[in-house]
């Protein structure tokens, strides 16, 4: 079987670094015996780019320092024929660079620069087909405030919230506290641009609110303070496809020790840490009525389309257990473990899910490159003939 190179990009400068490593290794394992040859592109916590087959082996991470020392520094380049390549540059006086054609890139980052559109922008610049949402949808999806505001404008129900910036908190702390209290306790404080429940805190009174805000500012310069839904049932749903053609998965009810799931509930429970997001305790399908299930799936698909998403995403909803009211909470444009457990319950295997992700990436890339991307006029030659004086005289 002829194999194509699939660059799996993961790690990164993010509090969700380890979760990303697990997702990448799970994906590489699921692609065994397929036409895809997984190539690691591991970004360390300090931002260094490394490659090497050992980086897709979980055992290597028992000694992180040694694993990184064995890694080969790498970078992207575009060849004379216009093909994007991953250049691996091993150390040593007589070592030669390896040029690895990058046929498709699988984005397996979680949080920060890997999921917020920044790395996606790099892929666009290097003209690499990449999985998941594009620059704009990734940026909006990562910014909880923008995502909620866009949903509000389209009539999607969301809970009331107050946005706080660090500078405003320092200058107008008392006013902001009173503004938050007008929403009513209990409140949840969360960073605007983080996932995996990192930096999220519940506040029952003014003292707890003050502490929660100060703690959350350690992770982000912008926060959302939201009215708590109580009694709460969390319901999640995954969407696969692009903004025009997509399908929704079965729904799940994630389970945790507290009303709001913690990082530990999501990644360090159930079957063990090596399972990533798949290890979390959950009920699949979610124990809600068929009417509520359909409502949530319709909302998930609608939001996915409104934000212009692609690939696979997981959308998280809050349901008032007494009234049945549903509120959109957030979207994960690169969900932990690619939410494969939800698609397995929808009778789509992990390998098939990844194949569909790659197919969507290739389709979007082909569509992009079918457009006119440059203007075939050598304007500079005309300007050069006129000289700098002529250029200054007019545009």
From TrEMBL:
Under Gene3D superfamilies, the record lists: 3.40.50.20, ATP-grasp fold, A domain, ATP-grasp fold, B domain
| Substrates-to-products reaction catalysed | 2 D-alanine + ATP = D-alanyl-D-alanine + ADP + phosphate + H(+)
Query: Has UniProt tagged this entry with the keyword Magnesium?
Result: yes
Listed GO cellular component terms? cytosol
How is the cofactor bound, as the UniProt entry phrases it?
Binds 2 magnesium or manganese ions per subunit.
Show where the ATP-grasp domain sits: 148-359
Q: Which cofactor does it need?
A: Mn(2+); Mg(2+)
Q: What InterPro entries does the annotation carry? A: ATP-grasp, ATP_grasp_subdomain_1, D-Ala_lig_Van_CS, D_ala_D_ala, Dala_Dala_lig_C, Dala_Dala_lig_N, PreATP-grasp_dom_sf
**Which positions are annotated as binding Mg(2+) 1?**
316, 330
User: Which NCBIfam families has this protein been placed in?
Assistant: D_ala_D_alaTIGR (TIGR01205), PRK01966.1-4 (NF002528)
Which protein is depicted? D-alanine--D-alanine ligase
* Species this chain originates from: Natronogracilivirga saccharolytica
Q: Which gene encodes it?
A: ddl
């Amino acid at each position: 079987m002829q194999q194509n190179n699939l660059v799996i990009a993961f790690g990164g400068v993010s509090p969700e670094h380890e979760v990303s490593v697990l997702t990448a290794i799970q994906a590489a394992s699921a692609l065994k015996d397929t036409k895809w040859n997984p190539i690691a592109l591991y970004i360390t916590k300090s931002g260094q780019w490394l490659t090497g087959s050992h980086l897709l082996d979980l055992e290597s991470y028992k000694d992180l320092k040694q694993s990184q020392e064995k890694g080969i520094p790498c970078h992207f380049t575009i060849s004379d024929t216009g093909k994007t390549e991953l250049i691996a540059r091993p150390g040593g006086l007589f070592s030669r660079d390896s040029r690895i054609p990058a046929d498709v890139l699988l984005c397996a980052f979680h949080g920060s620069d890997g999921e917020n559109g920044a790395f996606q922008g790099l892929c666009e610049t290097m003209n690499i087909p990449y999985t998941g949402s594009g620059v704009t949808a990734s940026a909006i999806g990562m910014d909880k405030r923008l995502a909620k505001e866009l949903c509000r404008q389209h009539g999607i129900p969301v809970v009331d919230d107050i946005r706080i910036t660090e500078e405003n908190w320092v200058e107008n702390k008392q006013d902001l506290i009173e503004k938050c209290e007008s929403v009513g306790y209990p409140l949840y404080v969360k960073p605007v641009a983080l996932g995996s429940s990192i930096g999220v805190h519940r506040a029952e009174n003014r003292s707890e609110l003050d502490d929660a805000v100060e703690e959350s500012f350690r992770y982000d310069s912008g926060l959302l303070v939201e009215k708590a839904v109580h009694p709460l049932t969390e319901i999640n749903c995954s969407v696969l496809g692009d903004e025009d053609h997509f399908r929704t998965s079965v729904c799940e009810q994630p389970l945790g020790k507290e009303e709001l799931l913690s990082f530990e509930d999501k990644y360090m429970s159930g079957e063990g840490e090596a399972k990533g997001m798949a290890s979390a305790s959950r009920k699949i399908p979610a124990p809600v009525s068929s009417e509520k299930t359909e409502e949530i799936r319709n909302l998930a698909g609608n939001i996915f389309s409104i934000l212009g998403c692609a690939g696979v995403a997981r959308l998280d909803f809050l349901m008032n257990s007494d009234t049945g009211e549903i509120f959109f909470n957030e979207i994960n444009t690169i969900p932990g473990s690619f939410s494969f457990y939800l698609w397995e319950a929808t009778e789509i295997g992990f390998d098939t899910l990844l194949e569909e992700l790659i197919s969507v990436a290739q389709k979007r890339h082909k569509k992009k490159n079918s457009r006119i991307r440059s203007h075939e006029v050598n304007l500079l030659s005309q300007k050069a003939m006129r000289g700098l004086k002529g250029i200054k005289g007019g545009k």
